[in-house]
Amino acid sequence: MRRKLVIGNWKMNGSRAGNAELLAGIAAGLTASGAACAVCAPAPYLAQCQAALQGSAIAWGAQDVSAHAAGAYTGEVSAAMLADFACRYVLVGHSERRAYHHESSELVAKKAVAALAAGLTPVVCVGETLAEREAGQTNAVVREQLGAVLEAISAGDVAKIVVAYEPVWAIGTGKTATPQMAQDVHQVLRAQLAEKDGQAAAGVHILYGGSMKPDNAKELLSMPDIDGGLIGGAALKAADFLAIIHAH
Ligand code: PEP
Q1: Residue 166 designated active-site
Q2: pLDDT band (50, 70, 90) for residue 64
Q3: Where is the signal peptide (predicted)?
Q4: N or C: which end of the chain has fewer CB within 10 A?
Q5: Widest CA span of the chain, in angstroms?
């Protein structure tokens, strides 16, 4: 049985004061019956997350990582630096990075490898655009995106990744995939994980992301292959994030 996992993606939001309030609110409302949870904060706030959350049930992580280990890569943040701040997770291949920063599946795979090498759990984000869904290409698109990562990692590392299915047309739009639509894609992804390591695939968390909110979380989380959520907008309010964590 996979314990549900709910990860907040703050994107480029927050301030020291606002984060302190949000983290205190989450910590105050979290109960043992909730899902495992984490927040992925902007890099400058990782030290604040570490100070506020160390020893708590809330893990923290980053939203991106360099594919390079160290050196002359101005502006980039390495996986070792994230590990230095005790990050557990790092998002790789979020659709906003793929779209606005032209990240290819090959680059995303290199980032996942770099994260694993530093002992971090890469949250590999995959998802189709509306045009791709309408053209019947959903499964092919997500398989290509996950496939690049699976090709780059060893079978022994399959158990060390998290996958997030985030249909691009559902992110920040208020439109959500129906539970069955999401389940169908999650099943495809789990089958693909099993092609690499049949045993590990059953234990890998596959999260759904895309306008998951308190009022639709329970239905989505009830599907057999939806193991949690990657939450954008609703992760910025403690009450909403807590409601999703406790929705299953
Ligand atoms: C996201 O950015 O990962 C996301 C799922 O955003 P939202 O929940 O706002 O759709």
Answers
A1: yes
A2: very high
A3: none
A4: N
A5: 47
Residue 245 CB: number of other CB atoms within 10 A? Answer: 28
- Residue 131: pLDDT band with limits 50, 70, 90: very high
pTM: 0.98
The CA distance from 220 to 230, in Å, is 12
Which band of pLDDT confidence, cut at 50, 70 and 90, is reported for residue 8? Answer: very high
Residue 221 backbone class (left: φ over 0; alpha: ψ -120 to 50; beta: rest): alpha
Binding site, annotated residues for substrate:
9-11, 172, 211, 232-233
Nearest protein CA to atom 3 of ligand 1, as residue: 232
Superfamily of domain 5-245: Aldolase class I (3.20.20.70)
Query: What is the DSSP track for 150-219?
Result: HHHS-GGGGGG-EEEE--GGGTTTS----HHHHHHHHHHHHHHHHHH-HHHHTT--EEEESS--HHHHHH
pLDDT at 1: 72
Query: CA nearest 166: which of 196, 123, 134?
Result: 123
pLDDT value of residue 126:
98
Q: Is 94 a catalytic residue?
A: yes
Which 8-state DSSP code applies to residue 231?
Answer: E
* Residues whose CB is less than 8 angstroms from the CB of residue 209 and which lie 6 or more positions away in sequence, other chains included: 9, 125, 127, 164, 165, 166, 170, 171, 229, 230, 231, 232
Task: Count other Cβ atoms within 10 Å, centred on residue 49.
Answer: 25
Report pLDDT digits (tens) over 158-173.
Answer: 999 999 999 999 998 9
Nearest-atom number in ligand 1 for the CA of 94 is 3
